[in-house]
Specification:
237 residues; alpha+beta; Arc Repressor Mutant, subunit A; 4-stranded antiparallel sheet; two-stranded antiparallel sheet
């Protein structure tokens, strides 16, 4: 089956959330929006901010690769410590100013996004939204760039000739290099060295094989396998 980065649903919400190290409840609101009651009455709504398809079953694949890449960018913002509720207007400004349907998954987010955020923050002045957007960027040598933690996330993305993400190197691994590409292994994480699927390595260990045997089976170092197991067994975000 051919995989299209934009239209083939590859990931369930919980699965995608685990790859991005964000709570599944958070990814659900990014994919489908939310509506909540305000204290004292009234309701507040938030629109969907990543690409996802309707689902009839809880863990049914709903997120295409482009949606995972969009969520990866939002995870970078979240990892900086700024709540997404505060920067939703800034995210909308990025989409509007870049003029792209999948702006958060585009190369232009990396090249132009910081400038857009800075301009939005200046326009929003001292509002909570403006202050939060300002925390995502820094001015260095008279140039506006993303804060370092966001740059570290975004530099792990590679783009296709169409300007949209085609590969993500997951940042939570300290030793192993684990990649996600739509065109390989149906979008499942795999090791850069040897190409083994992450789930196959984990499954062999869980079947009772010692780490040394697992490493030899897949052409990995013991440290790479231990790193993968560390991430796989960490508490849910």
């Amino acid at each position: 089956m051919a995989v299209d980065r934009f239209s083939t649903p590859l990931y369930g919400i919980a699965e995608a959330a685990s790859y991005l190290a964000v709570p599944a409840s958070t990814l659900t609101t990014w994919a489908y929006g939310y509506e909540r009651k305000r204290p004292g009455g009234g309701r507040v709504q938030g629109e969907a901010v990543i690409t996802a398809f309707p689902r009839s079953k809880h863990n049914e694949p709903a997120v295409p690769f482009v949606g995972l890449a969009e969520a990866y960018a939002l995870a970078a913002f979240r990892h900086s410590g700024v709540p997404l509720q505060r920067i939703r207007p800034a995210v909308e400004a990025i989409k509007r100013e870049l003029g792209l349907e999948y702006a958060l998954a585009s190369r232009r987010l990396f090249t132009d996004g910081a400038e857009v955020l800075y301009d939005y923050a200046e326009h929003a002045a001292d509002t909570p939204e403006g202050t939060s957007a300002r925390e995502l960027v820094v001015v260095r040598n008279n140039q506006v760039v993303f804060a370092e933690v966001i740059k570290d996330y975004l530099r792990r993305v590679e783009f296709a000739e169409d300007g949209y993400a085609q590969m993500i190197r997951l940042p939570q691994y300290q030793v192993a290099e684990v990649l996600i590409e739509a065109e390989h292994s149906f979008g499942r994480p795999r090791f850069a060295r040897g190409g083994a699927k992450l789930e196959d390595v984990i499954d062999l260990f869980q079947a009772g094989e010692p780490i040394k045997t697992v490493a030899e089976e897949f052409g990995l170092s013991r440290e790479e396998v231990e790193d993968a197991l560390r991430v796989a067994t960490r508490p849910a975000a």
